[in-house]
Amino acid sequence: MIALTDAHRDAINRHAVADHPEECCGLLLGTFGDEGRKVVRDVLPISNAREGEARHNRFLIGPMEMLRGEREARARGLDVVGIYHSHPDCPAVPSQFDLDHAWPAYSYIIVTATAAGAGQMLSWELRDDRSGFDAEVVDALD
Ligand SMILES: [Zn+2]
């Protein structure tokens, strides 16, 4: 389960719509709680800083960016708890590419983005055997 506020949701949706028709991505900073519950405290957009890269690479967060994100999180007393990205004009369901590049333990929030606005937002967790993703409950935080 992952919990986030309406403001976090809005920030992800705005990023997804701004980058449409390209994919956007960013990190979810927060805390790991009991029984796998994650609480988001901040969102860190990444793809806006990457002009001119191939669209299919935009979701890919490299080791250096991950390291920077971890440092940024730690400076605020937080952890990287997940990654968000958009699926322009496609369902918010992980692709084979997403599966091939997923990291364990993180939440994967995917939002559908269209020219008219943001659509469905779903969160996913990688199975331990990497055979696929399981849908994760997204909880509202005050
Ligand atoms: Zn994807």
From TrEMBL:
The chain positions of domain MPN read 2-130
The record, for PANTHER family, names: CYSO-CYSTEINE PEPTIDASE (PTHR34858)
Using the record, list the residue span of the signal peptide; answer none if the entry has no such feature. none
Q: Which domain of life is it from?
A: Bacteria
Q: What is this protein called?
A: Mov34/MPN/PAD-1 family protein
- Pfam families in the cross-refs: Prok-JAB
Q: What's a single GO BP term from this record?
A: proteolysis
Q: What is the lineage of its organism?
A: Bacteria, Pseudomonadati, Acidobacteriota, Vicinamibacteria, Vicinamibacterales
Q: Which GO terms describe its molecular function?
A: metalloexopeptidase activity; zinc ion binding
Q: Which InterPro entries match?
A: JAB_dom_prok (IPR028090), JAMM/MPN+_dom (IPR000555), MPN (IPR037518), VirAsm_ModProt (IPR051929)
Alphabetic keyword roster? Hydrolase, Metal-binding, Metalloprotease, Protease, Zinc
Write out the coiled-coil annotation as residue ranges.
Answer: none
